[in-house]
Amino acid sequence: MTTKQTIATPPLRAADQLFTLRNGNDMRLTISERGAALVSWWAPDRYGKVADVLLGYRDPDGYADNSAYFGAVIGRWANRIAQGRFMLDGAPVQAAVNDRGNHLHGGDAGFHRARWKLSASDAGVSLRLSSPDGDGGFPGKLDVQVHYRLDDEGRLTIDFEAVADAPTPVNLTAHPYFNLNGGSADVGDHMLQIDADFYMETDPRGIPIGVAAVAGTPFDFRQPAAIGPRLGWPDAQIRLVGGFDHCYCVKPHAMGRTGPLREVARVYDPGSGRRLQVSTTEPGLQFYSGNSLDGVQGRAGRPYARHDGFCLEAHAYPDQLNGQCASAVILRPGQVYRQTTVYRLSLQA
């Protein structure tokens, strides 16, 4: 039986609620209604020392703006849409553009900046948001729910659901930045493994230009490898963005559709002994090595540096609306969008 509890803590800001989930193994997970964001995840290392393994802002105003997307739920569309344009049932749609002429992570007024309606119980924390017709340029009213559960095995289960009153694209994800050493160093020593034979190459704007095999490239994490040395490989795709910001095809057989939950990635920090495992129902896993963190003010009272954290974001393929599997990401009235991602923190012997 779980010993998990949900407790209210002081507000992040005057109008924002903040709740903490606890399990029976000295873990605490703090969630804000602002952006439905994961604010902190306190977990012990192999010596029993507890540290926060998530990056975050030093003051509440950071989460109101959240230009780095720290810990937030992303929507309506995670990742990028080329020029913000796509066709829906034969009609052109123009979504908001906010990243070099493209749509990124819902636009400037995306879900990451919204105030969600939060409710908590012993079963976890649920957050709800109603996105009106035309929000971010997307058609139809969309009602979204996100549910967080933390169990005694260190599993954070994130369940997403959404319904719409008109056909509309939906592609949600969680955007936590991890540093398993608790911020004592960057993530260069972290050992990463991703179960994928292919990844998506991009143009300078981050838009996919094709699918490439990972074999023989710095993108090959089919066996565990340290992140740091790969950042310096003489590879055109690495130089393009100053590190990794690419989507791995972790479920190519799904043809861009949601599938059964399965483990797709693992990260191990040799210094602390902490291990992160990622499971998802989604076909894509974006690995981002914190290339733009330099100068972002962190909660430790100092600015973060490049590669101080990493993200593993599970979602549909970038720009899928303009690809062969566009129909897979259109939610229609009477349907329910569902997505599950699980992050599990534990200690490796």
Automatic annotation (TrEMBL):
The catalytic activity of this protein is classed by the Enzyme Commission as 5.1.3.3
At the top level, the lineage of the source is Bacteria
Quickly give the catalysed reaction.
alpha-D-glucose = beta-D-glucose
- Pfam families according to UniProt: Aldose_epim
Molecular function in Gene Ontology: aldose 1-epimerase activity
Supply the InterPro entries for this chain.
Answer: Aldose_1-epimerase (IPR015443), Aldose_1/G6P_1-epimerase (IPR008183), Gal_mutarotase_sf_dom (IPR011013), Galactose_mutarotase-like (IPR047215), GH-type_carb-bd (IPR014718)
Give the first-level EC class, as a single word. isomerase
Question: Keyword set for this entry?
Answer: Carbohydrate metabolism, Isomerase
Isomerase in keyword set: yes
Supply the SUPFAM superfamilies for this chain. Answer: Galactose mutarotase-like
The question of whether Isomerase is a record keyword is answered with yes
Please state the pathway this protein functions in, per its UniProt record.
Answer: Carbohydrate metabolism; hexose metabolism
Q: Which family does it belong to?
A: Belongs to the aldose epimerase family.
Query: What is this protein called in UniProt?
Result: Aldose 1-epimerase
Species whose genome carries this gene = Massilia mucilaginosa
Q: What is the lineage of its organism?
A: Bacteria, Pseudomonadati, Pseudomonadota, Betaproteobacteria, Burkholderiales
